[in-house]
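Weekly sync, protein design subgroup
Attendees: M.S., D.O., the rotation student, P.L. (late)

Item 1: inverse folding check
M.S. brought a backbone from last month's batch and wanted to see whether the design step gives back something sensible before we order anything. D.O. pointed out we never logged the input encoding, so this time it goes straight into the notes. Structure tokens as presented (210 positions):
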């Protein structure tokens, strides 16, 4: 989610705008059946190869919050999920279309891997069973009466950014406004089951440069 970049001044005028570092914040809305929104923060830095193209690496923190159904075959309706978060190291590339204008349209891409923390992710049974086989009743009652920690694992993710940045100051600083589209595969493990989902979100992003 590389929404903004900054260029650090160097020792000579010729070297100004070669290096960049930036931070941004975003909020994503779900666009598929995976019922989870997210918010995130990013810190990144890189090198500007010319007036148009820059690339580098960074680290993001993302938190998902929402509900999705993970049917186990025991409960009637499904499972509620809660907050769960990940740290996502990534590499990025960005292209500025009009680098010498005050307002500069840009497109950016990002590729990385998510390491999830699942300490606050739980599921509960949402409905009471009626005609279960007696063999399954003990497992059903166990699920019905208690919350259980879910396992969640991340995977390679990808992000596309579109936006516009405005120069601030005289040393290459920028403020950026954009929209991102994020694709995050997630694998849940619960009870005796496993579910793989792709969490697709879209939303606004704002960033600053230094």
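Designed sequence read out in the meeting:
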């Amino acid at each position: 989610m590389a929404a903004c970049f900054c260029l650090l001044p160097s020792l000579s005028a010729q070297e100004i705008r070669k290096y960049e570092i930036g931070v941004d914040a975003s909020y994503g809305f779900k666009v598929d059946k995976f019922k989870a929104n997210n918010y995130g923060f990013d810190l990144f830095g890189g090198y500007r190869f010319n007036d148009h193209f820059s690339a580098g690496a960074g680290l993001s923190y993302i938190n998902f919050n929402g509900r999705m159904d993970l049917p186990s075959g025991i409960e009637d309706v499904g499972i509620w999920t809660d907050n769960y978060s990940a740290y996502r190291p990534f590499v990025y590339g960005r292209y500025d279309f009009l680098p010498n204008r005050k307002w500069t349209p840009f497109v950016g891409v990002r590729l990385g891997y998510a390491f999830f923390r699942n300490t606050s992710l739980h599921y509960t049974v949402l409905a009471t069973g009626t005609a279960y086989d007696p063999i399954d009743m003990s497992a059903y009652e166990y699920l019905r009466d208690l919350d259980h920690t879910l396992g969640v694992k991340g995977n390679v993710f990808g992000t596309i950014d579109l936006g516009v940045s405005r120069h601030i100051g005289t040393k290459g600083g920028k403020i950026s406004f954009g929209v991102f589209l994020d694709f995050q595969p997630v694998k849940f493990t619960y009870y005796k089951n496993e579910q793989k989902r792709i969490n697709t979100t879209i939303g606004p992003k704002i960033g600053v440069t230094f």
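Discussion: The first strand starts at residue 19 and ends at 30. Residues 152 and 188 are 5 Å apart (CA to CA).
Action: P.L. to compare against the previous round before Friday.
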